[in-house]
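Format notes (please read before filing issues)

Several people have asked whether sequences and structure tokens are stored in separate files. They are not. Every record keeps both together, in the order shown below: the sequence lines, then the token lines. Line labels are part of the format and must not be stripped during preprocessing.
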Amino acid sequence: MNFEYIQARDIPEAVRMLKKYGEESRILAGGTELLVNIRHHAMSPKILVDIKSIPSLSYIKYDENGVLRIGALTPLRNIERSPEIMNRHPLISECVRSIATLQIKNVGTIGGNLCQTVKCSYYNQSHVNWFMRQSLEPCRQRGGSVCHASRVDTLNHAILGKPQNGCIATTASDLATPLLALSASIRVTGARGERLVAAENFFKGGGRTTLQRDEIVTEIDIPSVAGTPRSAYRKYSQGTRNFSILNIAVIARLNPHQKFCEDIRIILGGVSVIPLRLNSVETQFKKQEISSWDTRKSLMNDLQGTKVRGNLSEYKLKRAKTMVFDVIHSTLG
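Then the structure lines:
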């Protein structure tokens, strides 16, 4: 782990360092993923730009319009324990509660969670697999020309849609799913100034985001939710690492008679390289009485083109369908 350490005093200095050193630099915030990736030889940055001490990036506040603004350096544990978020945006609280351990949430930040790399045994998972990787051609994430995961049956990779950058790993951020459901935006700052990116455009798949090399995430903006919506978040994972295999976020606003959905958003993570919005299922609930709901046909439209490679991916597809049914049922009653 041979690198130069630079502590940025403010956002402009961090941006200047990223622009100066380019691909050789990485942002250090909580470090819960970056330092592990360095130790596992998944990346070898020459410059670490530490932004942990920038005070202006850690906060939770609601503005006069009810928009929730969370600074990128806000620890996940602070978000989980926030009474205001529990009351006004419970979908976020539910999601953060499911992430990792208390120790990691005390250190890990919301910005770091959004910018995670992929989770794949051919790229960065487990020190034992480092020896395995030395005997294989580098995968696409390591600069090679092959995605080894696409040749095997696995629970942890996409079973729908095209690979991104030749990689079929799913978006690693658990928070991506509820942020898409809530129509959130990601505020980023770089050498060319500040811009606001819709969450649905932020994640590109294959461990990539819309961030340029000289940009950092500074804030997450979540709009106020009209009325008294119903919402639910569920996650399916295995093992002690708690990495998401599947997750789903649902938020719905019913009409005054509680028979139809005036608005509903359903985001399913883990089946495609980026979280998938179930447009056909949403459309059904806007046209049909809730009491007569049957999502099987509309869900098959949304999951059309799924590629089953074996028993594991077949189970993943069945588990995804079950999660959709169960979460919608528990949300709408």
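For reference, the curators noted about this record: The chain has a mean pLDDT of 93. The longest helix spans residues 311-332.
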